[in-house]
Amino acid sequence: MWRLMMIGGSLWWLLTLPVVMGDEKPNIVLVFVDDLGWHDVGCYGNEFVETPRIDRLAAEGLRFTDFYAAGAVCSPTRCAVQSGQNQARIGITAHIPGHWRPFERVITPMTTMALPLEVKTVAEALGDSGYATGYVGKWHLGNSRTHGPGAQGYQFAAVINGPHLPGRYRVALRPDLRPAAGQYRTDFEADLAVRFIEQNSSRPFFLMVSPYAVHIPLAAMSRKVEKYRRKAGAEGDRHLPHPVYAAMIEHVDDLVGRVVDAVAGAGLTSRTMIVVTSDNGGLYRRYDYQPQVDPTVTGNGPLRDEKGSLYEGGIRVPLIVKYPPLVKPGSTSTTAAISYDFFPTFTDLAGVELPENQAIDGLSLLPVLQEPSAQLDRTALHFHYPHYHHSRPASAIRKGKWKLIEFLDGTGMELYDLAEDLGETANLTSQRPGRAAALRKELQVWRAAVGARMPLVNPHYDSARASEWWNRRTAKPLHATGQLRRPFPRTEKDRPK
User: Fold this and answer.
1) Which residues does the chain have with pLDDT short of 50?
2) 8 A C-beta contact, residue 200 and residue 262
3) Which residue in 191, 270, 302, 416 is deepest, having the highest Cβ count within 10 Å?
4) d(Cα 341, Cα 343) in Å, to the nearest integer?
């Protein structure tokens, strides 16, 4: 652990005792929202969606402007959070089981199908030191019976599968955990989180709450949807964010509020760190978009692109941290940080040693929480997404203000100055060839060091069929010619009776 001290007019970080008064270890709650974009909540500039509880949390804590999801889709980032490692080390580089385009330029690598049990998770590290550990919501890191959170150090595990509307989701392997009649999924996830906090208020706890919202298919309770349709006015469903999506964000805001209130109700506010973030950037629309069925969901402006790409819109996400003993209310940090920093941050806060035989790529964020202008001892952030989704297979590196994206299908690379061009509109590769070459070399060295899996040239490349999506499980085209997916019910009024 560390403490900020002034010595000779300079700030120094010194190893010392955990950052709480007395002998009690702090509690930690991580709310890990699915597909929440950087611009989707009020405190990040969204003036349409009402997120009073998240905005209040930011006003009482620290808001990061340059925080990154480790992956462009869910499973890679979830892997990074649990392991403290860049997911390229483990091979979970796509959402499990991943997409397949068999006639594209390159054959993309298979993703590891579950978080290996030999990986020591953040829950195991904290649980070994006496923490109660709980997991609620989406997991997506392997079969919940053999590789779910219950097998990865979470003493209470409620893996919830299925869409958002009442009657369409359930808790895997837990028939004793059932929602109330007509209960929306996010509200049920909040119920389980509150129950865990209340039942473990007398001991230190780590709780990860992972709602399925705001992931598609769009679906929310009608009272909220109608409010946003009225706000959208004549634009209706063409408004961005989509009124149903806006309602889903407000459902998440309600969940955050209930978690905060449960912590306060248990008298634990002063010794509980509450963290809210997302697993990847916001989604514009499905990767296999069909205009007759799929609405456009949101926009990530001023960031470029969306989930499934390594442009800023795919990986830059909100991060808000409230921890009264350490964090100055209403503070903001421009320090670049990433999802695998949570593992060492939480163990640092709890006074727990990092695993001896496991490479930890993350760095503790406690110095930044104490002093938002503090810089971390890291030269660069690295990203590896060698898959087709909303973009082409790529790796990326951010070093200071510079960001290089190298496309792994032989289609080139792009260099951006994020300080001057947050929207990544001006590719500077030709103007700064030396900078681009140096960053590309660093990226190649990093990939070799972590054993990143790479695409291979596809001998069956067919430009006429390159855009076809196939199902990995059935080895058949995802959609037969002329067939469309049926629209999913978007409010409880639309559900089949």
Assistant:
1) 1-18, 21, 481-482, 496-497
2) no
3) 416
4) 6
